[in-house]
Every structure is written in structure tokens, then in C-alpha cells.
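Hi Y.,

Following your request, here is the sequence exactly as I used it, all 385 residues.
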Amino acid sequence: MAGPSRIDELRKKFDENPRRYFAPLANEYRKIGDFEQAIFICQEFLPQQPGHMSGHIVYGQALFESGRHDEARSVFETALALDPENLIALRHLGDIARAHGDNETARAWYRRVLESDPRNEEISAILTSIETGEPLAIINDGILQHMRVGADGAIGVKYMANEDAEVVGMLGSGGMARSNLEAFLCVRRIRKVQVFSPTPANREAFAAEIRARHKLEAVVCDAPEQVYRGAHIVAACTDSAVPVLDGRHLETGSHIVNIGGGGLPDAASLARVDVYLRFGDAPAPTGRPDLKFDDEHLTWSAGPEATKGKRGHGIALPDKLVYLEDLVTGRKKGRTSRDQITWSERGNLQGAQFYAVAGRIYEAARAKGLGREIPTEWFLQDIRD
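Below is the corresponding structure, written out as C-alpha cells. Let me know if you'd prefer a different format.
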């Protein structure tokens, strides 16, 4: 990942010669996840150099990675007008089509990639899976599970926490606490962690690990209310079946992350939330728009008597709601004041993070030659109905 020193280096060169260095600078911002800054730079300088190929590519990638697929498609099509065989543009156009369920168009773009790069195994595998439904990988989900939940927390912190948030109050000292903190470090300059969990040995071990691995100040708290003092991000990462947050202790400007605890923060925390970020809702089944729902559970039961299935909480604070799509497209703002208390949650996306993270793991494993090949014929049969 690009670091501040690389940004600073390119910024100096950019100040001296912006026409030459706007694309490299924008690309470094893209690499660290600051898509808005990357997009701003490209929008400022590309009109002055409409034939700048790398500028179009960086601009398209930043739009794509921020979820602005329609705009990204237009930029990559412009890039192809300059270079009809550009592999990055071709690949991204295929990815955009596939993300929107247009497999026929995706196939056409991916075939063009293979025409220019016939040994591209990753594209070959994707193309095969689209055309035949062949399974690509079987992946243990232990680490993946922690990565995808940590990423959820970091997305909320990125878009809703104050920019200078640097102190984390952590309730919990297990795997989810570790992965969430690691993810927070990707989007904020965390300086200090205050941790409480019921077992003293566990919280002491967590703090020692954080000091050694991340070189952070780690304070072990003897009571849960101590983690809130001066905390800019309060994260409850436990396997508790009941809420562990206590909104009475939240300080102004805090951002809340809640993992476990029955799915919702406590009533006192909810009452103090000013802005509520929800990543999204699952779409309705194909052909049944009437079956769209916003909670987390859908239950079928078999038996002579109907039973009431468990229901999730759905949209918790509709009057304070903003969706992730609204933020990345600029339609709405999230936090509008330093003093606001914010909360983010995934919503009922039904495993979207699993296949998103699994896809990146698969691509990285293929690129590095990791894993074991499983014969496709193990999954086939010649018995006809």
C-alpha cells in the first residue's frame, strides 16, 4: 500500500509540473482508498489533456472502485477510443458488465482481453465460470470471515468517523476485535486503543499484541465504561447475544461499530445516533419485486402448523438513514458536524462481502500459484433426469 511519504513525494513533483504528475498522484490516492481525491484530480486535469491515456485509466479505476460504475464505463470506453487493446480498460468493462448481471456483454469484453493476452489465466477462469457455471474455488472461511467483518467496520469508519479520529475504545478482545482494529488502521491514523473484556488475561494479551504488532499505545481498562473516555471510535466486537454498548458513556463526535450483541446497539446508543449509515438492502427475487425486505432473516418451515420465524431488525433508524451508495455518489452527506454521533451497519446484503472478499482471495491465489487444483470432473455426472 502506498504511504504518506510517497504521496508527499509526488505532491512536490505535481506542484512543479501538474500536467506530468497528476495521473501518478491520483493513482497513489486511489491505492490508499482515497477515491474522492483521485477523482477530483483527474476531473481537474484530464480536460486539459484529453489524450492522456494513463489519466483516463486511473480516473476509470477510481470511479469503478468507488462504485460509480456508469461513470467508470464511460471513461473506459473513452480510453479504448485512444487504445482499443488496453487490457485494463477491457477488463474493467467486463467486470462492470458482470457486476450488473450482463454476462453476455461481460463475455464479449473478456474475450477481447484474451485476444490480446491469450495466457491470462484469471480471465480464462472467469470466462469459463460465466459460460459453464464451473466452481472456481473452495475456500475455508475462518480468516475470510474475519476479513469481511473487519472491512465492514472500516467502511463505516472511513465514511462516518471524524477525519482525525485516532483513539479506539474496544469492547472485546477476540478475533473480531483484532480484525476490526486492523481494518481501522487502513482508513485512519489510529494512535491509541483502550480495551476491555470480562477476562483480565484476555484483555492483557490483546493489549500486548497490539503494542507489539501495530506499535500503538494500548491501555487495558478495568471497567467497560473506561473505554469510552476520549474515544473517537467505539467498537463492540463480541459474541454476546445481548447488547454490550452503553450509550450513556458515548462522547460527542463518536462513531459506533457494533458486532454481535444481538445485532443492534443498546437503546441508549440508538437514541443518541445522529446519522445512521446502512450499506444496502438485498434486492427482491427475480420476477417478484413484491418480496423485497429489509431485515436479516427469511424463514420457511414445514409442518402442519405455521410457526413464527425469527425476524431481523431491518432499517433501525429510518429518519436518520443514509445509504453507502448515497455517500460514494455524492447524493447525500454522512456526518455534517464534528459533534455528531454516527453508527454504521451492513444491512441485509446476504453474504455480499463473502463473495467479494472470496473473489479477491481467488484472484490473488491464482496470481501467486497457491492452492491445489481440484479436477472439475469430480463435480460432474452423466446421469440424466
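Residues 303 and 309 are 13 Å apart (CA to CA).

Thanks again,
Q.
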